[in-house]
Amino acid sequence: MNKKTINWIFIGIIILTLLSFNIAEPKYFNLAVDFINKTIAIKIPHFPNKPFKLGLDLQGGTHLVYEADLSSIKQEDFSSSMQGLRNIIERRVNLFGVAEPVVQTEQAGSGHYRLIVELAGIKDPQEAIKMIGQTPYLEFKERKSDEETQKILDKQKEISGKNMDEIIEIPDYQLGLEDPYFKSTILTGKYLKNSEVNFEPNTNTPIISLQFNDEGAKIFEELTKNNVGKPLAIYIDNVLLSAPTVQQEISGGKAQISGDFTVKSAQDLARNLNAGALPVPIKLISQQSVGPTLGAVSLNQSLLAGIFGFLAVVLFMIVIYRLPGLLASVALVVYVSLVLALFKLIPITLTLAGIGGFILSIGMAVDANILIFARMKEEIKEGKSLFAAIDAGFKRAWPSIRDSNLNSLIVCAILFSFATSFIKGFALTLSLGILMSMFSAIFITRILLFVFMRPKLEKFKWLL
């Protein structure tokens, strides 16, 4: 690159740094703008003061863990059912205005799945439980055969009046715990497209009309075809609401729920069904409230650790590599400014683990510089000119920089794909930091070296 191009790029880096700094921390720019606007009576616009998005552990909030009941779901449908459950709960909490909810599923053993809900800013666990618990579980059940019903009734008589220790000694005691009259089908709220309140023409009582999606319509048609002349029970949260007798095969995917509804209760049920009828029932097994005070203390400690880590890296680079180390430290300041601006613009929800990943990336950001500067020293010892040594140092260190950072990015991708939310935050911030550190070391540091490392400095070997 010629000198003119280098100078223009250097000006661009300065502008980019100022822009990213004001995105990350606009307070100082806005104070200066206020002073200028008052002094000169003009209107210079402010930088938008968009706050960083903090996770549950820093902002405070509620952490809930639910156990999913997949007993009525085929094993091959476990994954899709849990994904549908996650999507519905996420849509549900979004309706209540929760900022950046974290809703994820995890397998807690063979056939056991859990739903984890993290609601930053919600300090009352009961409010969150109510918010999620209002989502109804809609299920259609068909009549069992008389033989099945009789077996269950007989088993219920056998276990009647006994305590649990005695019951579990009875062969096939689980049979006595089943519903003797109706058995589950695959038609659940998972296939619901829409629900609305209507009124029965003769009695003017509220009823709820259901419309299933295309897949649900086919299932409902097959279900009614196989149960003509038999009752088809409709359950909400395992409570029987109605069991109308099927008169004929019903196509089009439309059904009705009748029951002892008031207008308000019917409207509430229809609204909650539209918000998302759960594809599987869930049970709350753990709840935890994280206070904002604990989050503030953790955040302050993390920021303090980041500042000390940054200063330690700068001191090391200046002591060991002198002038090139000082320029690398300047590039590191630019790097920190750019990464913080990215965290706001994307935006990324910062957790303690995420901040840990960012702090770690500060140390990793100078790894490339160390390789480059070590190579530059070797080139200077061999008698090359300063500019030639800089150019050779970058070219010959690049394969090592590329391979080491690529390996780190692969590990980050694995962590992000398979780990929990806290580890995902660590992997995301670390991977962004690695990418920006490569840009900082290969591009920004190189331009700074070309701008400030003049040939006359070759006389002052102690600076190099």
Would you spell out the secondary-structure blueprint of this structure?
Layout (H helix, E strand, L loop, with lengths): L2 H22 L2 H14 L12 E2 L1 H4 L1 E8 L9 H18 L6 E6 L5 E8 L4 H9 L4 E6 L2 H14 L4 H4 L14 E7 L3 E8 L6 E7 L1 H13 L5 E5 L2 E4 L11 E4 L5 H14 L5 E9 L1 H54 L3 E2 L1 H14 L1 H15 L4 H33 L2 H32 L12
Parallel strand pairs: 1-13
Antiparallel strand pairs: 2-4, 2-12, 3-4, 5-6, 5-9, 7-8, 8-11, 9-10
Helix pairs in contact: 1-10, 1-14, 10-11, 10-14, 11-14, 12-13, 13-14
Explain this structure:
- By secondary structure, the protein is α+β, with helices and mostly antiparallel strands.
- The chain folds into two domains: 3-17 and 293-463, Multidrug efflux transporter AcrB transmembrane domain (Multidrug efflux transporter AcrB transmembrane fold), CATH 1.20.1640; 61-144 and 181-288, Gyrase A, domain 2 (2-Layer Sandwich).
- Helices cover 56% and strands 16% of the residues.
- It is built from 14 helices and 13 strands.
- It has helices at 3-24, 27-40, 56-59, 78-95, 125-133, 146-159, 164-167, 214-226, 263-276, 292-345, 352-365, 367-381, 386-418, 421-452, and strands at residues 53-54, 61-68, 102-107, 113-120, 138-143, 182-188, 192-199, 206-212, 232-236, 239-242, 254-257, 282-290, 349-350.
- The strands form four sheets. It has a four-stranded antiparallel β-sheet with strand order 3-4-2-12.
- Helix 1 packs antiparallel against helix 14, helix 11 (352-365) runs parallel beside helix 14 and helix 13 runs antiparallel to helix 14 (421-452).
- The chain is elongated, with a radius of gyration of 32 Å.
